[in-house]
Amino acid sequence: MRIEPYLFFEGRCEEAIDFYRSALGAEVTMLLRNKESPEPSQCPLPPGSEDKILHSSFRIGETTVNASDGLCQGKPNFQGFSLSLSAANEAEAQRLFGALAEGGQVQLPLGKTFFSPCFGMVTDRFSVAWMIIVPS
């Protein structure tokens, strides 16, 4: 058994995937647009959402993340969780943190803690919270 996050970007999924490709080296493994669905939508979608993403999967390192445009309501609302990203070393942590912080907001700058030589928290431009850590 495994847990895979599923993120709803409410109309910004393709932009988010492109960002994660650039920032984290994400690799898209599956992408299905609304107009490609084999069945009509069970949920009412706004006009012009035919090219929005019904379902996608992408890999960041060894982890699969699923994502969608959801109901295309404009602003994603990610609350109550963070995605934790382990970096091999401090240089990689700084690179990843800096990339995710671009257009986002630093919650806790990278620094040494009692549990890690390098740990920080950032919310990216899509409001997804990340914790970057170099394991001890």
TrEMBL record:
Q: Which organism is it from?
A: Methylocaldum marinum
Question: What's the name of the protein?
Answer: 3-demethylubiquinone-9 3-methyltransferase
GO molecular function per UniProt: methyltransferase activity
Q: Where are the transmembrane segments?
A: none
The keyword Transferase belongs to this UniProt entry's keyword annotation: yes
Q: Report if keyword Protein biosynthesis is assigned.
A: no
Which biological process annotations from GO are given for this protein? methylation
Enumerate the UniProt keywords alphabetically: Methyltransferase, Transferase, Ubiquinone
Q: Upper lineage ranks? A: Bacteria, Pseudomonadati, Pseudomonadota, Gammaproteobacteria, Methylococcales
Cite the PhnB-like domain residue spans from the record. Answer: 3-133
